[in-house]
Amino acid sequence: MFTPELTAKLQKYSTPFYYYDLALLRQTLAALKSAASPHGYRVHYALKANFDARLLGIIREHGLGADCVSGNEVQKALDCGFPAGEIVFAGVGKSDPEIMLGLQNGIRCFNCESLQELEVIDGLAGQAGRTAPVALRINPDVDAHTHQYITTGREENKFGIYYSELAEMVAKVQQFPHLKLEGIHFHIGSQITDIAVFQRLSRRVNEIQRWFREREIALPLLNLGGGLGIDYQHPDARPVPDFAAYFNTFAEYLELPAGQEVHFELGRALVGQCGSLISRVLYIKQGRKTRFAILDAGMTELIRPALYQAHHQIDNLTSRDEALTYDVVGPVCETADFFAKGAMLPQTRRGDLIAVRSAGAYGAVMASRYNLRPEVGVVYSDDVG
Ligand code: LLP
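Above: the input record for the complex with LLP. Below: its predicted structure, written as tokens.
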């Protein structure tokens, strides 16, 4: 992806910055569409993965809806042209003003996670003279087999309501005058690479849907969340996730009532591979045991390695020399401030341009100003010429 021509063009920008390959984003969205459309599935893009307005514009052009987890995300989606009727709002801790914003704009659905939240939404909907469409987020106790910090569908996680509480919750929703039960929602975790996990989720969803069917409760909407992983090990060989395998698994295993709308909320799979963090080498330092390449980007720009011990491929874009081993670290005053330990890189020198790959999702959006670092820049492939 980073040809010598592109690297030469990137030299003129001051580092660090996020580089977004918009052609790859478009290719990914086209692949998503051709895999989801045959099944009639609707995909809401999870803004939390990356809320860059230019990316959002392209995502909207491809006809996706929006999945938001804050009032500001709802507002951003509206500002970027997502119709309110295609916005869903999730999150364990929605504040009153955030709920009001969703109500006043007439969003498609609130994905709710507790009894108290339902009560509050009902009260606010009453005040606003509206009926709030709600889906119950159910914790299905299915293990996503991913990093513990991004697993959400186990009984010990804070997310969703438990199967054992279902009867009480459903009875309550039906009593609240300003709520309309639209459906059920699941999201069991992120960066899921084992398709068998989605088979297990589908079977569990079938059991839960049966429970509703037995009670003659209609569910117009089924939302299966996001979570499809990307190939962090091979960003060049596998830049586009296998959307067909993902959707076909659900199509094969789910038993749907007639006419039910099926929604997904993908984030990482759509934007992960199109972004790279571009940085320059400030110093090479020979430690007692390790050789360090110290970059001008750090955990303040991309926190995933520090927070989840996540692997990101690192490319030296300017050196073709023989490979040596490096710990690739940032300038921040924290030992956790690293991108890779023991990485093999062509011999690296001060001034070399480095790309930290697969950083389009949960990269720029999780940046911080710690150490009073400047805000990270952005460069789009369409503008590089
Ligand atoms: N829906 C809900 C309710 C979610 O909580 C999430 C992600 C998604 C959809 C989108 O999931 P995706 O398709 O992107 O896997 N910062 C972490 C990931 C946190 C994911 C949070 N929830 C990371 O860098 O790996």
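Notes for the reader.
The domain at 4-16+273-380 is CATH 2.40.37.10 (Lyase, Ornithine Decarboxylase; Chain A, domain 1).
Residues 195-214 form the longest helix (20 residues).
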